[in-house]
Amino acid sequence: LPDLFEEREQLLWGPYASKAGERREAQEEGSTQISTKGRRVGIPRALHFYEFFPYWKAFFSALGFEVAVSDPTNRHLIHEASERAAVEACFPVKVALGHIINLLEKEIDYLFVPSMITTHNETGQDKQNSYLCPYVQSWPYMMRSVLNLWETPEGQRRELTLLEPHVSFQLGRKAVEKELVQFAPVLKVSIKAIKK
Description:
Elements: H1 4-13, E1 16-17, E2 23-24, E3 33-34, E4 40-43, H2 49-62, E5 66-69, H3 75-84, H4 91-104, E6 110-112, E7 115-118, E8 122-123, E9 126-127, H5 134-137, H6 139-146, E10 161-163, E11 166-168, H7 173-181, H8 184-187, H9 191-195
Parallel strand pairs: 4-5, 4-6, 6-10, 7-11
Antiparallel strand pairs: 1-2, 3-5, 8-9
Helix pairs in contact: 3-4
């Protein structure tokens, strides 16, 4: 029987092909950074990470950003999250705070925390509603209410831009595109580049 977890890791961290057919390589498997030039976008390794990271990695890498990922869940991240969680929620939602704290230590320029509303779930001819849990949908708002993202532990101002699109894949590509193009000025990229 093949090691399906290992196959998942290879697919998650492996290269992807752009529309032009070029392959963009990740650093060694399991690395917390993807090699590209440019400013750094942090993506927490939490909640819907394993389902959507390849999509977001391809998106930001194609725009020329370096993608930084929080460390794998560990005792330190769990402790940090437990100390700050203000809402009684499930363990994955609580530990997501620890992933944000970990990313803030990585000197990122942008923090990408989408409000994921629906996924695209199509079975044959039937389209099914596939809403994410309300805690997952509202995670960016809970995170902002608990953490001071713009101040370091030493009390200094942190230069950070928060990216919080409302993503509903079920509404189709145009709806997702509409959410993402609003970040073109903040990311300092063209709308055309985002629509690619």
